[in-house]
Design a protein that fits this description.
The chain is α/β, with parallel strands linked by helices. Helices cover 32% and strands 18% of the residues. The protein has a single domain, classed as Phosphoglycerate mutase-like (Rossmann fold, 3-Layer(aba) Sandwich), CATH 3.40.50.
């Protein structure tokens, strides 16, 4: 499968997915505008570069698009719309983009500490360290399991390539649970980049995941 991405490892990973096997991509949205002065990230949409990159991804796809699911936040739906806009006609999806709340929400509270939350980078770091006291009782397995349950539920029976577009924190949770990602308490290059995500194929109780040059099979876990 061909899949042009601003993250080169994803292009290589897509080529590893067996022909004829339905696949799913769980990804972060494309590049958005910068942090808002009022702290409200929900209204931020894609930059022109983000739109261009999504169009380039869509134009490269050579597999029929299946299910399309989005966070409830506009830039995630916009990312999928711009991918679909450029997909060659034979590979265009038959269905519409639908929202999935599990791709917008988390069990824990990564809001800033001054707002009563745990802190953005701190929350994911505590999840990775399995520090349930610091996360107020939420575990990495619970966060990841909820996302995976929704992902496989929403894409069950789909063919070709299904895409779910969410947020960096959600991708970090899956990469942490499945591949041991560690991100620390401040931003670093380990953090999820724009349009980065994990490829999956298989069923909920027996699936293969691909992330940053790694491939693992999971049976009966998470």
């Amino acid at each position: 499968m061909t899949f042009a991405s601003r993250n080169p490892w994803m292009t290589a990973a897509a080529a590893e997915i067996p022909d004829g096997i339905p696949a799913v991509l769980f990804m972060r949205h494309e590049e958005r505008y910068g942090n808002p002065p009022d702290g409200d990230y929900s209204k931020l949409l894609l930059t022109p570069e983000g739109v261009r990159s999504a169009n380039a991804t869509g134009a490269s796809i050579d597999r029929k698009l299946g299910v399309l699911r989005s966070s409830c936040v506009g830039r995630c739906k916009q990312t999928l719309q711009e991918i679909v806009r450029s997909v060659p006609a034979p590979f265009a999806p038959d269905g519409q983009i639908a929202e999935c709340r599990e791709f917008s929400e988390l069990l824990g509270d990564p809001r800033p500490k001054e707002e009563g939350g745990i802190g953005w980078y701190e929350y994911y770091n505590y999840l990775q360290l399995h520090d349930a006291a610091a996360t107020r009782g939420v575990t990495l397995e619970a966060e990841a399991g909820r996302i995976l349950d929704a992902l496989f539920r929403e894409t069950a029976g789909s063919r070709g390539l299904s895409i779910a577009c969410s947020h960096d924190g959600h991708v970090v949770i899956l990469a942490s649970a499945l591949f041991g990602l560690r991100t620390g308490t401040t931003w670093s290059e380990e953090w999820c980049h724009y349009a980065e995500g994990l490829f999956f194929y298989g069923e909920r109780d027996d699936f293969t995941a691909l992330w940053r040059g790694q491939k693992k099979r999971f049976r009966g876990g998470l």
